[in-house]
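Data card: per-record layout.
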Amino acid sequence: MPSVTSWTRIEPGSRNDNLAPGLQARVHDPLWLLARQWQLGEFTGEDAGSPASVRIQAQVTPVTTYRPYGGPEQPYDRGRPLESVVEAGSGGQLTEPRTAARTGQHFLRLLAERPTLAAYGPLFAQAYPVVVDPQRSAALDERGRRWLAVMGRRAASGAALLPVLRALVDHGTPPPRPTLPTSILPELTECAQTWLDWLDRLDLAGTDPAVSPAAWQADRMEYRFDLTAPTTDGPTVLSANEYDGGRLDWHSFSHDTTATTDVPAGPETEIRVRTVLPAPASYPGMPAPRWWEFEDARVDFGRVEAEPTDLHRLLLVEYATVYSNDWYLLPLTVPVASVVKIRSLVVTDTFGFRTLVRMAGALPDDGQDWSLFRHTVTGPGATANHGRSDFLLVAPAIADSLDSAPVEEVRMFRDEIANVAWAVETTVEGATGRPLRRHENAEPAEPSPPAGDEPAGAHYRLATSVPEHWFPLLPVEPTQGAYRYRRGGVPRRRDGETVVPRPLGQLLEPDSDLLIHEEEVPRDGLHVTRFRQRARWSDGSTHSWTGRRKRPGRGEGASGLLFDVITDPTDD
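The structure for this 572-residue chain is written out next.
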């Protein structure tokens, strides 16, 4: 029975573990190779053409609202990158002593530029001095004390001036102190408005925490928030439930079909129709599509070493050597902070044929489960399209930023010997804004006094001491079957009294009863940092904020904590 055999391509193959001979394609008789190509039908034209033009119809819907977890929806500000909105929280940086002093100095400079107000600068500095709260005063080192002694008398606090000057601008309320003549209030209002505009440009004005709670979830040590876009199919809620800081992109979000929103559907949706010329996709070091073409000598796919279990590496080599010239780029310009859905894509090839390209998995049981650049769908709508969305969020994220050294670091790990987990404040932010190493300023532990009638030399201790910046994470069960770690403290003797140390930084929530989910502190540990960032947005504006980042730790640790110890100095 006759059979028809055809080949669509010639691919190099190798019978040993070395890919180099197949990729070299050595030829000793070019005429023989040409005959073989003719015999295999390579010189016969296929009934397929290359794409010549593509018509794209896209539905573009801008993101309109932002909602931190547990808070109300608020209009999304397109003039700021999303990271600065999410990571900065509601408090801003104005409460930091160094930032408060610098902003207060700027207000005094604005007063000095006006002859009628210059004499009132020292009065404002005296009425609103730079002070440090009790929590930060515990973190003062010698440098911080000298700085506070100088700046406390020469600068006003921007944090203290903000509510006073905002009341003056918004409601005409004169400052309660110092006492000012009524004649200078109009000019002072202009000066205060200039100062408030300057704070807004630096994202330092802040908002009311009761109205705009932060997106940081201390029990998970990560951010959680939602974005909403009013598409024609209904309001689309994109949730970022496990954003651990650093960089945001489309893969940080999932389509949450259970979330509720008050945004109406469809009024801002735009339909864009574009006819574009496709361009072959390429990347540096890509193999040439023709056999006899010189390639970049710095890339040698034949020297790629892969074991049979290295599937990802083998797939990469196969894509680079066989399928890399089968892909095309289609440019479509859309604004950032928008949800884009491709409604139709029609390809016209070099023979004039038009083909409608459907989304992978659009037809039932088509066997195409392509999921790249598709959001995961959660909730009742997860059964459609294999649980993947048919749109893509063009995230309003920054491309790059300047990051400072961490101003605060906390390391969490498990201590199997002491059968407890620990949260160690290795670095906190000092009063001057500079990092302060806790182990360099921690005071030594006082030994427990001997009990009652025990010998003077030896005494019993219930437990040994640990450094004051080591905080135990004690397991509790707030609800049945759900275990969490509660931040505690190891009592220590200080000036003859028993005290329980408290964290000096912000990550361990010193003013609240911190409960952390048990699964958030694995055996690998956890490393949480807080650092300053500065980035430039697409309109040229500069934004600064203090963000947080969660990363894996260094494994288990040991505190040296012992229980039921009898110490006897005569044994030394």
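Known properties of this structure: The two ends are 98 Å apart (CA to CA). The chain has three domains: 50-57+271-394, 97-201, 402-571.

See the next section for split statistics.
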